[in-house]
Sequence to fold (255 residues):
Amino acid sequence: MSLPKTALITGAASGIGAEIAKTLFHDGCHAVIADLNEPEYLSDLSAPNQRCLYIPTDLSKQESCQALVDRVLQEFGSVDILVNNAGFQHISPLEEFPEIVWEKMLQVMLTAPFLLTRYLFPAMKQNNWGRIINMGSIHAQVASVNKAGYIAAKHGLVGLTKTTALEGGPFQITANVICPAYVRTPLVEQQIESQAKTMGISIEEVESQVFLKASATGKMIEPDEVASMVSYLCSEKAKSITGACWTIDGGWTAQ
Ligand code: NAD
Fold:
């Protein structure tokens, strides 16, 4: 029997990242969770030969990214799967977009994925195996108003993914970016609630008239749909899939 692979998932205390951590653990991996907050589900993940470890991390800081990698390499020797998932949203017109928020968005959603990839690449190369999954968004492919920082960071992540795929290819390291439309998580539920208040309409109306307006299926995406894609991309069956954007958008960008 082969040894469990080690998966490092950022932003896994909540939402999509939490579902990815649980799914990869159920796939037989050790799950290392890097987040500002401690996940509530840690004690639910237990298996005889697997570990689930939370490492408090602020991905907006280089030294915190470095400390995370040092700790995980010390505990596990290498990382086989890196899922750069942490992110946040800020909505504001361009001319009012706070510069400090712009910087933080790029640090968390573009610089941290670069740093973690850079620091973990040598161990992956040595193992001649690796999977890097970056969490993009539909906003890595198309724009919407008032989301300059998010859209710039997510578009940048596509470029980073493609370069990683080219440099990792000879070492059987694949890199892919997943691009979901709206997924039902705390990040989106907060936006829906605030728009319902601002627009004076119900939560259901905001979902159908605003968030799902461009969706052909007319349904919010569930976190486990994204986690299943991650699980597949981490499998041996996906060894030739690299440098690609995997869109999960209910048909949004088909029009
Ligand atoms: P979420 O708010 O539920 O989870 C995000 C996690 O990232 C949180 O646990 C948070 O603590 C963590 N995080 C934020 N800043 C951090 C930092 N500086 N250091 C460490 N951790 C930090 O959000 P989600 O909806 O699950 O989003 C996860 C990813 O999926 C994000 O990259 C987001 O852009 C992307 N995404 C989400 C949607 C959606 O509709 N929910 C759609 C497309 C893409």
Summary: The chain has a mean pLDDT of 96. Residues 99-127 form the longest helix (29 residues). Residues 11, 13-17, 35-37, 57-60, 85-88, 108, 135, 137, 180, 182-183, 185-188 surround nicotinamide-adenine-dinucleotide (CB under 6 Å). The radius of gyration is 18 Å.
